[in-house]
Specification:
This protein has 100 residues and is mostly loops. 12% of the residues lie in helices and 6% in strands. Strands 1-2-3 form a three-stranded antiparallel beta sheet, with no helix packed on it.
Length: 100
């Protein structure tokens, strides 16, 4: 029954939210009174990240999302960024002159 201290009994009295959804990162880390996000640092112009937490940086870096633009770059670079034409195929004697 005890509600003194920080233990189990005092958890029932907690019903106020100090953090809400962040507009930039979408996490529930935006502190309402401080008006800053604990995860991304919003409204700061620079995104919050620290080298003491390498795993956290890796969770939200390039390659964790769809990469709509970047994932096609290697193929387009290989073809000289030509569009609309047929892709350049390699002919070899191994395949008897047929495209690979």
């Amino acid at each position: 029954m005890g509600k003194i201290g920080k233990g189990t009994g005092s958890f029932g009295k907690r019903h106020n939210k100090s953090h809400t959804m962040c507009r930039r990162c979408g996490r529930r880390s935006y502190h309402i009174q401080k008006a800053t996000c604990g995860a991304c640092g919003y409204p700061s112009a620079r995104k919050r990240n620290y080298n003491w937490s390498t795993k956290a940086i890796g969770r939200r870096t390039t390659g964790t999302g769809r990469m709509r633009y970047l994932k096609t770059l290697p193929r387009r670079f290989k073809n000289g960024f030509r569009e609309g034409a047929r892709e350049h195929h390699i002919f070899s004697s191994f395949t008897g002159g047929f495209a690979v």
